[in-house]
Write a structure and sequence with these properties.
- The complex is a heterodimer of chains A (about 1150) and B (about 500).
- Chain A is an alpha/beta fold and about 1150 residues long.
- Chain A is built from 37 helices and 46 strands.
- In chain A, the strands form 15 sheets. Chain A has a 7-stranded mixed β-sheet with strand order 5-4-16-15-14-6-7, with helices on both faces. A 6-stranded mixed barrel of chain A has the order 20-25-22-24-23-26.
- In chain A, helix 5 packs parallel to helix 28 (about 855-860), helix 12 runs parallel beside helix 15 (about 385-395) and helix 13 (about 335-340) runs parallel beside helix 23.
- Chain B is mainly α and about 500 residues long.
- In chain B, helix 11 packs antiparallel against helix 12 (about 310-340) and helix 14 (about 360-370) packs antiparallel against helix 16 (about 385-410).
- Chains A and B meet through strand 35, helix 31, helix 32 and strand 39 of A and helix 4, helix 8 and helix 13 of B.
């Protein structure tokens, strides 16, 4: 029913309000106007259609639409793109900005360029401009960006475990400062990690000046302390070595993984590889030769031309023997004296005869290249061994050529042991720790138990400044100060050779109030009270940033360090990421022979053959434990053992057999009890060929209690077996295999575990060690190559094809598919290449690839690749787009490659398993031209692009997985779960059955938080469950470059011709992407520069073209004629002919035909001892 | 042989062999049954209360169907990860089960179409149930490829529907051929089956007194009156559909085998697959028909219609196809060696020597090649327990075969660096068991509601249908003994013999 609303009657009394005289007079005109303006009943409208919008119908509609609003749940959520109304300068959504910075590390800076999108750092790459970088970046540095977005990062201040605030802490500091001022700082101690930060060192120095009684200490579980001690003794305090492997023709690595974990400098891998250039057989003669003596397989051992398997505890003996032989050959009296100074153990001063022969021939080779031969020793070895190395290098003429001695000017500070002593003596009242590491966890147990642990309880004020809450150190603290990540702070750092780099913030701190170490020291130094000051203002977009205190401090250091420092120079330094000419200066390389001999005389050799030997090594994934909460690193398989998410005890095959360990466990390992230094701990075992017998290698850093959501429950603590006297290796250990599970409730000291099973599940990504006679990784010696340029093609099944390289690639192929048949009428190659300008291809040089997995992490960071968790790795569902295949090879295998058909697919040849070679091969999508995956996809979700990429349309993929099955390289990855959305790291319980969160499906915990989204590369789709993904050759970078080239090409042409857009004739060449412009993430990250990517369509256009033309080039599984765009360059070894001759005669002596290679094993040790 | 079988079934008549007897084939329906007996017998299966055993089969199979539905719901809601496949072995039990069920779904149409065209009259007793089995097996089969995909909700991309993206299907992909082949096969099979049902549905309708049954049978009988013209049209349509189905029998499993044969994976990439798969499918299909029909025959007392002669024939087919399959197994090994391809050779070496799934290979070989050899012996073919055991072996063996082909191959292909093991999860196992339940449930429901044997067709093979039929002569020569089995009326629930509304084929 329609109700007409009438105008209220004019009031009869009271005031009368009027708007116009007409109204007051109530003229008809005014009445009419009023009615026209506000007709009666207008609220309800008049006609039928209007009636629909009556109040009643309005309510009806409202009710209905409210009810229907619930239906919105059935729709996909709408996500709005909010463009900038006023854009900050340079910020274009989806376009990266690059800034230089550096990551502070114990061995020196890792200079880097940070990719940032709209202010979010997403990806790190090496800074090629920096004198200590060739542009490569190791996996740990790359993955450190994930720590920035770690949800378990320390975010708030705590005092005795309770939440507090920045103000409270500053108040505490103010009162402390007043107290300390009176006592000249007595009772104040500062403990840091060993990262080389000039500003921090300067501030600590100032602090010590201000408070003369204060003490500074530093600690690093795997630092350079021993090397520094030796060089300081031999040359001058503060001296360090700087290696230039591009000058070394012979390298002898004495238990030194300088190509892997024992980082010497960012450039050493690149420099070493520059000496392994093998463009033609003639280069072979110029190649360097690498001898490696080591106890377990390392990346360096894998690259060795000759490798001697020696227990770590015997390294000193080998070194002395080597020194003696070199002294003899070079007639070097100083070396003779140095070698003689070591007191070798009386019971076994002799090495096995075949060791001696090996060492003699190697030494002869080193001496023959005097001046270009160098011995490098593992930094964890004792200072004495380093002193001996210095003497050897002096005799070899390496000092001053390959090894430069540089002056860092660093002053020594106290060690952790000193700190423990001071704390036990109650000398410390306030201890401030600032560092990335976890000293209390890492410290040898006798330091912790014998003082540090207890003593720290005596320290009333223990301030821990860290990015991680849950370290053992933080748990012992009274105050925990949340630290900035290095990508959020102002700081500075020196490279391993001294070049000064500025650490600049890439993003404002994610959590309000967090402090950098420099800010903390500044607060401590400041004379004024720091509490009550307003926090530094957040930078406003578009406004010049107000210099923060930390930045001012860095600038001060910069001003002091750089001559003629100016704003320009500062800006240049920020832009380039370093300051030129700031490298450490050389020290006169005259050895203090007396100090060397004294140091050596103090060294005691270890008694061999006394039970097992245990070696503690840093982890290739989580280093000393600091990256335990980093999912990328946890899931990046260890290069050699291929273990993820855990650490293992590595042992040799022979030892495993003696211990009755199952060699063929798949996805699990038997558990052993290792008893040494009076303690017993349990570790799962992985049998790795090439390990020394009767020795166990334990990677440290795992088994942390409360390590965060990623690190929780991973691995077993190996620090627990270390003692101060045996920080690197311990002998006399007892090792037994567990036969049943061990209940640990009764036993103390095993963090985070109450039960050890007899067989422990392990997430190993490659269970197979052999190539089974399939010439996948091809290799040969310089000699092989010289005689026969095509030797690479003769290997494997392809060897059965007739003809030369050209012909093999053409008609004589086995394959069903026909290779390029020629050109069609338009001159286009058949099969059609639609883009005649750009055809992308990649070459991986196996001669350079060490297998370090840096490419793998780079790819993960660039391409938004999720982690899947240990449970899924065990099921074989890891998502890495690059897989690092590692194979062990014995002579049998290469014979098998010649006559492969009858080679039985047996993995282990008993006698040879402990002396294999190790081969690495990164395998990503090969971008086959005749891609088997493309033909089988029923929905056309994987297709070829005009420029030769095998593209994957995620939106089109329905997930039949047929493409993966038909991929001969098995590089396609399927999203079995919503790995990006659901947290794979937690366990849920349903009806009392525990299961991984992924299996909870829609009820599972989500992890696609704002925080995790910040890291994602906006140019790469984040894949959902049910689709296949794989390497795209970083298509987002290719497309970016294409857009750039088109815009640039047009612009240039316009400028050159003066024509406007309409008349402009753009030719292909104008908008072609330039030479080597695009770098894939893996290529960029490779420290060895083993990957080349580029345009193969343009003759002599790109490096990749030349690499493809090399006679070492081959296509994996080439006989399939899938015409892979990624090809490989075979590995060339440069063995010592003299040593080869020996092994040949040995072979004949053994008389087992050509299939057996002499086995060099250690005598003495073994049966009856310890097992 | 026919005489011998006859003699065996009715040893009492052995005493007086006659000339005529020697020349005559063994009758397809024993005991001299007449039209009305046939109608009553078969319709009685539907009309009478089901034996207890029916419920014992129906209830668990229904529950298992629910389990299957639950497992698929879990799969779709949570992700393919709840199953066991991984990166090298992206297919596991899913496609194994698919091929297994598709294989089973082979015998039905083979029996109905090819045997029809080749005038094998013994098919009449078997074809209805075999076709039903086919349909149910194809339904089970279809579930796997449809639901094993990562994004089920996008599976319509497989259908050639014009869309705004202008992306068409990839007609090079054997998976797409599969979609077409299986859906065509299913469609044609169901039409063929339904067409054959029409006269019988009319019989059922006519026998119903009232109620919902009459209405439903009436609707589905499509107004069948059994007139001469109707029969003529029916016969033509049936023959045409038989002709249409015949190539499909061969094509469907050939296309399924293309999933493997056209790939480049060593162990899959082999031209022997199409004939080998078809033979294997017939092999497995017949085994499943026997597995279902031997108990059904016993339960419903259909021994006179589904005779030992049928079982004997099918056992011989199993022996033949099993031997073909065995030949294929050996030929695969020979070709692998002869190919000179290391990858091909090692794929088979891994299968038969020390590979991770070697036991499956030997289980397959025993079940499929060794076990059926028992059928060389008549005694074995006549002993129903032996027949059932062999058929069970074949059923398992055919599953193993698909598992060996799929999983062994994928887990160990070109690059050892990528190798990994595949293990099924509980979800996968229960999904498969669930489909067995679904299959069984469908089959027992079929027995419950539809005539398990084609009434109209079986009448056509009775001696009475012969235009030259002479009851006097039959009696005189004592060719077929008089009915000795009198439990029929009791079994039809004392229902008066409603006149066989359906006359036998006029042809």
């Amino acid at each position: 029913m329609k109700r007409i609303w009438h105008h209220p009657e004019e009031p009869k009394t009271g005031k009368r309000y009027w708007r116009s005289l007409n109204q007051l007079a109530q003229t008809p005109a005014s009445l009419e106007a009023r009615i026209r303006e506000f007709p009666e009943g207008v609220e309800a409208m008049k006609d039928e259609a209007d009636a629909e919008t009556s109040r009643r119908s309005f309510l009806k509609l409202m009710g209905a639409s409210t009810a229907l609003a619930g239906m919105a749940a059935c729709r996909r959520p709408e996500i709005h793109i909010r463009p900038y109304a006023k854009s900050p300068e340079w910020v274009i959504p989806g376009k990266a900005l690059f800034y230089a910075t550096a990551m502070p590390r114990a061995v020196g800076a890792s200079p880097m360029v940070v990719h940032t999108y709209e202010g979010r750092p997403t990806h790190l790459q090496g800074n090629k401009l920096h004198p200590d970088s060739n542009g490569g970046l190791d996996s740990q540095a790359q993955a450190s960006i994930l720590n920035l977005y770690d949800p378990n990062r320390a975010q708030i201040f705590t005092a005795l475990g309770k939440k507090t605030g920045r103000e409270d802490f500053l108040k505490f500091l103010d009162t402390k400062k007043a107290e300390l001022g009176g006592k000249q700082g007595a009772g104040l101690a500062i403990l840091t990690d060993e990262s080389v930060t000039p500003t921090r060192s300067r501030l600590v120095g100032e602090l010590l000046k201000k408070y003369p009684q204060a003490k500074a200490y530093s600690h690093e579980a795997f630092g350079q302390a021993n090397v520094r001690t030796a060089y300081s003794a031999a040359f001058a305090p503060g001296a360090v070595p700087a290696y230039d492997f591009s000058k070394a023709e012979r390298v002898f690595a004495l238990d030194c993984d300088f190509l892997g974990l024992d980082r010497i400098g960012n450039k050493s891998v690149g420099q070493f590889m520059s000496m392994r250039k093998a463009d033609s057989p003639e280069d072979g003669a110029k190649m360097n030769r690498l001898y490696v003596v080591e106890g377990r397989y390392t990346l360096t051992g894998g690259m060795a031309d000759h490798r001697l398997r020696v227990r770590t505890s015997q390294t000193l003996k080998v070194a002395v023997k080597l020194a003696q032989i070199i002294a003899e050959k070079t007639d070097d009296a100083a070396l003779k004296a140095a070698a003689g100074a070591v007191v070798l153990n009386g019971t076994d001063t002799t090495l096995r005869a075949d060791y001696k022969q090996w060492l003699t021939l190697a030494a002869e080779d080193l001496v023959s290249k005097k001046g270009a031969a160098v011995v490098v020793t593992g930094s964890a070895h004792s200072p004495a061994l380093h002193l001996l190395t210095i003497a050897i290098n002096q005799a070899l003429g390496a000092l001053g050529t390959v090894v430069a001695v540089k002056q860092t000017g660093a002053t020594p500070v106290g060690t952790l042991a000193d700190l423990a002593k001071a704390a036990a003596g109650k000398e410390i009242d306030t201890l401030i720790f600032a560092g990335e590491n976890d000293p209390l966890f890492e410290a040898p147990l006798d330091i912790v138990a014998g003082g540090l642990g207890e003593a720290l309880k005596n320290v009333p004020n223990f301030v821990v400044h860290a990015t991680r809450y849950r370290t053992a150190t933080a748990r012992a603290a009274t105050w925990v100060v949340p630290a900035t990540h290095y990508l959020e702070q102002w700081s500075d750092v020196r490279g391993s050779e001294g070049s000064y780099a500025i650490v600049q913030p890439m993003i404002a701190p994610l959590y309000a109030g967090v402090m950098s170490d420099i800010e903390l020291l500044q607060a401590l130094l400041s004379d004024k009270p720091t509490a009550g000051q307003p926090p530094p203002p957040a930078p406003v977009a578009g406004q010049p940033e107000e210099a923060s205190a930390a930045m001012t401090a860095v600038r001060e250091t910069f001003n002091a360090l750089v001559q003629g420092a100016s704003d320009d120079k500062w800006n240049n330094a920020l832009r380039d990421g370093f300051v030129g000419g700031t490298a450490y200066t050389a020290v006169a390389s005259t050895i203090n022979a007396g100090a060397v001999n004294t140091g050596l005389a103090a060294e005691r050799d270890v008694v061999p053959g006394n039970g097992f030997e245990v070696t503690f090594v840093p982890c290739s994934k989580i280093h000393d434990g600091r990256y335990i909460n980093n999912g990328w690193l946890q899931e990046a398989p260890d290069a050699i053992s291929k273990i993820t998410w855990d650490n293992v005890a590595l042992i040799s095959v022979k030892t495993a057999k003696a211990l009755n360990i199952n060699l063929f466990n798949e996805d699990s390992g038997d558990v052993i009890a290792v008893e040494v230094n009076g303690r017993t701990r349990y570790y799962p075992v992985l049998v790795i060929p090439g390990h020394a017998d009767d020795a166990v290698s334990l990677t440290v850093g795992y088994g942390q209690k409360d390590a965060g959501r990623v690190g929780k429950g991973t691995g077993f603590d190996a620090y627990a077996l270390r003692s101060a006297a045996t920080p690197y290796f311990a002998t006399g250990a007892k090792v037994t295999k567990l036969t049943g599970k061990v209940d640990l409730v009764e036993k103390d000291g095993v963090e985070g575990r109450t039960e050890i099973p007899a067989v422990y599940p392990l997430g190993v990504t490659a269970d197979h060690h052999s190539m089974f006679g399939r010439a996948l990784v091809r290799e040969g010696t310089v000699e092989d190559w010289k005689g026969n340029e095509e030797f690479v093609l003769a290997q494997g099944t392809d060897g059965n094809l007739h003809g030369n390289r050209e012909e093999k690639n053409k008609e004589n192929s086995f394959s069903f598919y026909k290779p390029v048949a020629g050109r069609d009428s338009k001159g286009m190659p058949v099969p059609h290449l639609n883009d005649p300008m750009h055809q992308w291809g990649m070459v991986i040089d196996l001669n350079k690839c060490t297998g370090c997995t840096s490419c793998l992490v780079a790819c993960q960071s660039e391409n938004n690749i999720p982690i899947v968790g240990k449970d899924q790795v065990i099921r074989g569902r890891e998502m890495h787009w690059i897989r690092m295949d590692r194979y062990f090879a014995t002579d049998l295998d290469s014979d098998g490659a010649q006559n492969n058909l009858m080679a039985e697919p047996r993995e282990w040849e008993e006698d040879q398993m402990d002396e294999p070679e190790m081969l690495m091969q990164p395998v990503a999508c090969q971008h086959c031209e005749a891609a088997p995956c493309e033909t089988v996809c029923p929905v056309n979700a994987t297709v070829h692009t005009p420029d030769g990429l095998n593209a994957m349309a995620y939106n089109r993929c329905i997930g039949t997985r047929y493409c993966s099955n038909n991929c001969p390289f098995k590089v396609r990855r399927f999203n079995y779960f919503d790995y990006n959305k659901r947290n794979p790291l937690v366990k849920n319980s349903f009806l009392g059955v525990e299961h991984n969160n992924l299996y909870s499906g829609p009820f599972g915990e989500r992890q696609d938080t704002e925080l995790s989204k910040l890291q994602k590369n906006p140019n790469v789709s984040v894949r959902m469950r049910g689709v296949i993904e794989k390497c795209t050759y970083c298509v987002q970078r290719i497309e970016g470059a294409r857009i750039e080239a088109r815009a640039q090409g047009r612009r240039n042409k316009r400028l050159a011709t003066g024509l406007n857009d309409e008349n402009l004739k753009i030719e292909d060449a104008d908008i072609a992407i330039g030479k080597d412009v695009i770098k894939t993430a893996c290529q960029e990250a490779c420290p060895a520069e083993a990957i080349s990517f580029g345009n193969i369509a343009e003759p002599s256009h790109d490096t990749v073209k030349n690499w493809k033309a090399n006679s070492r080039s081959y296509e994996m599984l080439g006989y399939l004629s899938v015409r892979a765009r990624t090809t490989y360059l075979a590995r060339i070894k440069n063995p010592n002919p003299a040593l080869l001759a020996v092994s040949k005669t040995e072979k004949e002596k053994v008389g087992q035909g050509s299939k057996t290679r002499p086995i060099i094993t250690e005598a003495g040790a073994g049966a009856g001892n310890g097992h | 042989m026919a005489e011998a079988a006859h003699a065996h079934d009715h040893p009492a008549n052995d005493g007086a062999p006659s000339r005529a007897k020697v020349l005559l084939r063994e009758p397809l329906v024993l005991n001299h049954r007449n039209y009305s007996w046939v109608t009553n017998k078969i319709a009685g299966v539907v009309e009478n209360p089901q034996p207890k055993l029916w419920w014992y089969l129906f209830i668990p199979s229904f529950l298992l169907t629910l389990v299957m539905v639950g497992c698929f719901a879990y799969l779709v809601s949570t992700g393919v990860g709840v199953w066991g496949p991984n990166n090298p072995a992206a297919w596991g039990w899913d496609i194994t089960n698919f091929v297994f069920w598709i294989g089973i779904g082979h015998a039905g149409t083979l029996i109905s179409a090819i045997l029809y065209l080749t005038r094998q009259k013994w098919r009449t007793a078997v074809n209805r149930s075999a076709e039903a089995m086919t349909l149910f097996a194809v339904m089970c089969a279809g579930l796997f490829p449809a639901l094993h995909v990562g994004r089920v909700w996008m599976a319509w991309f497989l259908a050639p529907v014009p869309n705004s993206n202008a992306i068409w299907q990839n007609f090079k992909s054997p998976l797409l051929w599969d979609v077409f082949a299986v859906s065509t096969y299913f469609t044609v099979s169901i039409i063929f089956w339904y067409l054959g049902l029409v006269p019988d549905l009319a019989t059922m309708r006519d026998r119903c007194k009232s109620g919902l049954r009459k209405v439903l049978y009436g609707i589905f009988a499509l107004g069948w009156r059994g007139g001469n013209r109707q029969w003529r049209h029916y016969e033509v349509a049936y023959m045409l559909l038989a002709a249409l189905s015949t190539p499909l029998v061969l094509s469907v499993h050939t296309v399924v085998s293309f999933d493997f044969a056209t790939s480049i994976v060593p162990g899959w990439h082999t031209t022997i697959f199409p004939p080998y798969f078809v033979a294997g499918a017939i092999f497995g299909g017949f085994a499943m028909v026997l597995t279902l029909m031997i108990p059904a025959r016993k339960i419903y007392g259909l021994q006179d219609l589904f005779t030992m002669k049928h079982i004997d024939n099918m056992a011989k087919i199993i022996l033949l196809t099993g031997t073909i399959v065995g030949y294929a197994y050996l030929m695969e090994l020979f070709v692998a060696w002869y190919s000179g391809s290391l990858y091909e050779f090692s794929a088979f070496m891994i299968r038969i020597f020390d590979g991770p799934y070697t036991p499956y290979y030997y289980a397959m070989f025993f079940c499929n090649v060794i076990a059926p050899q028992a059928f060389w012996f008549k005694k074995c073919r006549e002993n129903l327990i032996v027949v059932m055991i062999v058929c069970m072996f074949v059923n398992c063996g055919m599953w193993y075969e698909r598992f060996v082909i799929i999983v062994t191959t994928l887990a160990r292909d070109f690059l050892p660096g990528a190798w990994d093991m595949y293990h099924p999860t509980w979800v996968e196992i229960w999904t498969f068991i669930g489909t067995i339940g679904f299959f069984t449930m469908n089959f027992v429901l079929f027995c419950r509601f539809l005539p398990v044997i084609a009434i109209g067709e079986i009448k056509a093979v009775l001696p009475e249908s012969d235009p030259h039929y002479d009851p006097e002569r039959t009696k005189r020569d004592n060719i077929v003994p008089a009915a000795t089995y009198d439990g029929d009326l009791e079994h039809t629930g004392g229902r008066p013999e409603a006149a066989a509304a359906v006359s036998p084929a006029t042809a």
